[in-house]
Every structure is written in structure tokens, then in C-alpha cells.
Amino acid sequence: MLRYITAVHLEGGLGLEHIAEYKWDEPRTRKKGSSAPSAMVEWVRSQGNNAYVRAKTGDVRVAVVNANPPYLRTEPDALKQDNLLALPRF
Fold first, then answer.
1. Domain ranges across the chain
2. Do residues 59 and 52 lie in contact, with contact meaning Cβ atoms separated by under 8 Å?
3. How far apart are the C-alpha atoms of 14 and 33, rounded to whole Å?
4. 25, 31 contact by CB (below 8 A)
5. Could you read off the pLDDT of 28-86 as tens digits, one per residue?
């Protein structure tokens, strides 16, 4: 399943670990929704699921950071800032 993260909600700080909710859409199913970090981490870790952010340089894959608690980040690309933090806020 392919999912694009389209916006983030931050609480308590400005870093990736402070993302409290993700908005996303699934082009194939045309579903849109929002998920808490724990649910998105679990979804990304599930076999066959891939999350991306649409960036100026193209689609950038989202990966899980194995911290406590785990959180998401994008794989490195030409953008200095993580692509998740460059998304619109809600």
C-alpha cells in the first residue's frame, strides 16, 4: 500500500519527535485520513506498506527511527531540513 503524508501537527517542540499527528492520503484507494505517530510507525513497519512525502526533488521515502518511542523521518535528499518538517501544519 502506498501512502503520502501531506501535513503534520506538532506539539511541545519543533523536531520530528514532536509530530503528534500525520495527515495522509492513499492515491490507489482514494482514502484520506490522519494518524497518531504510533499508528503511522506501525503502518510503515508493516510488510508491503510504503509512505512518502512529495518534495520539490520528487517523492521522498519515509523511514522509522528506532528511538524510544519510535518516530518517522524522511530518507536524506537534497533538502537540508527533513521533508516531514517542511510539510504544511494543521
1. 2-74
2. yes
3. 22
4. yes
5. 999 999 999 999 999 999 999 999 999 988 999 999 999 999 999 999 876 677 999 99
